[in-house]
């Protein structure tokens, strides 16, 4: 099926299509049921958002556009009968990240928020799926980024000190940091939103979208996500540090180099 044919289908319709596709899959029944369960949670959330005032906020609309793109890709995967893999990617409470297995030292996928409260049981096949095979089967969803613990980032940024702050965007403050291995990083500490259940959900979706999109889009012209941290209410993203100025400067520099928006789009790996 041509992905272009799905253009214009909204997120809620995609949820229905994914559920239908997953229910039609003959193999991996149990995994498909989990997939349906996870997608329906996203669908319920979208329904709640649909007529709310929050939909007027551009950042939420943008987040939902990105979610729609994720759902579109999930649908494409569902119809290709690989639900086992996308269950992990769509689990609203678990993000796949790469870690090394303590015994074999093999990179392994685990749910990033396994320490966080989760009412959803994460598919055990996904939990222990070796990163290598995962990459081979689903390279565009894999993340080479790592889950940091909060103390590593406190250490890297001198306790998020004022001196280390290099900027501030819509979603949080950005700090320059240096990891133990010497790598210079930009650490974005997301603002805490007022504690309304919906807003927290949306913030988490936004956060997870950022992780998925940046790890999926590996390209020399796209900033690399080095890792992330979830600790209590803390949501932190760790990017490679751009020594040549801000991201905006970098983007405008790119266009000065005759890399037009459409040219860039052409060079982004096509999933
Ligand atoms: N990877 C990075 N390396 C160096 N500086 C960075 C990096 N990322 C962000 N910054 C600095 O932090 C500032 C805030 O960045 P951030 O991505 O949070 O927001 P923004 O893209 O400027 O705005 P918005 O969030 O509203 O889109 C940037 O303007 C830049 O100066």
N-to-C SSE series?
A: HHHHEEHHEHEEEHEEHH
- Uncertain regions: pLDDT < 50 for 5+ in a row? 1-8, 81-144, 246-271
Structural class based on helices, strands and sheet pairing: alpha+beta
Number of strands: 8
What average pLDDT do the residues reach?
62
Task: Identify the bound ligands.
Answer: adenosine-5'-triphosphate
How many whole angstroms does the radius of gyration measure?
Answer: 19 Å
Distance between the termini: 13 Å
The quaternary state of the protein chains shown equals: single chain
Strand line-up across the major sheet: 3-7-8-6-5-4
| Shape annotation | elongated
How is the main sheet built?
A: 6 strands, mixed
Strand content of the residues, in percent? 15-25%
| Helical fraction | 40-55%
The count of helical stretches stands at 10
Q: Would you write up a description of this structure?
A:
With 271 residues, this protein is of the alpha+beta class. 45% of the residues lie in helices and 16% in strands. The protein has helices at residues 11-24, 29-50, 58-79, 83-90, 124-127, 131-138, 150-156, 197-216, 247-256, 261-267; strands spanning 96-100, 107-111, 146-147, 165-168, 172-178, 184-190, 225-231, 234-240. The strands form two sheets. A six-stranded mixed sheet has the order 3-7-8-6-5-4, with helices on both faces. Strands 1-2 form a two-stranded antiparallel sheet. Helix 1 (11-24) runs antiparallel to helix 2 and helix 2 (29-50) runs parallel beside helix 4. The protein is elongated, with a radius of gyration of 19 Å. Mean pLDDT is 62; it is low at 1-8, 81-144 and 246-271. Adenosine-5'-triphosphate binds at residues 166-171, 174, 186, 188, 223, 239, 241-242, 246-248.
């Amino acid at each position: 099926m041509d992905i272009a044919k799905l253009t214009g289908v909204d997120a809620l319709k995609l949820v229905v299509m994914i559920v239908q596709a997953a229910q039609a899959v003959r193999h991996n029944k149990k995994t498909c049921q989990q997939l349906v369960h996870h997608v329906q949670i996203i669908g319920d959330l979208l329904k709640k958002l649909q007529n709310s005032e929050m939909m007027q906020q551009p950042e939420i609309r943008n987040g939902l556009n990105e979610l729609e793109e994720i759902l579109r890709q999930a649908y494409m995967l569902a119809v290709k009968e690989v639900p086992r893999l996308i269950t992990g990617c769509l689990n609203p409470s678990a993000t796949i990240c790469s870690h090394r297995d303590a015994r074999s030292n093999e990179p392994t996928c685990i749910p990033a928020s396994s320490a966080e409260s989760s009412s959803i049981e994460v598919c055990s096949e996904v939990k222990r799926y070796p990163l290598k095979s995962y990459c081979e089967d689903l390279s565009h969803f894999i993340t080479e980024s790592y889950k940091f613990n909060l103390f590593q980032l406190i250490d890297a940024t001198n306790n998020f000190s004022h001196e280390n702050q290099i900027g501030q965007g819509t979603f949080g403050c950005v700090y320059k940091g240096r990891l133990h291995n010497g790598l210079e990083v930009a650490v974005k500490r997301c603002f805490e939103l007022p504690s309304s259940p919906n807003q927290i959900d949306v913030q988490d979706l936004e956060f997870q979208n950022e992780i998925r999109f940046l790890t999926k889009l590996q390209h020399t012209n796209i900033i690399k996500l080095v890792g992330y941290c979830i600790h209590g209410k803390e949501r932190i993203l760790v990017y490679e540090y751009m020594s040549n100025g801000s991201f905006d400067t970098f983007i405008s520099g790119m266009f000065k180099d005759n890399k037009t928006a459409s040219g860039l789009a052409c060079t982004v790996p096509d999933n």
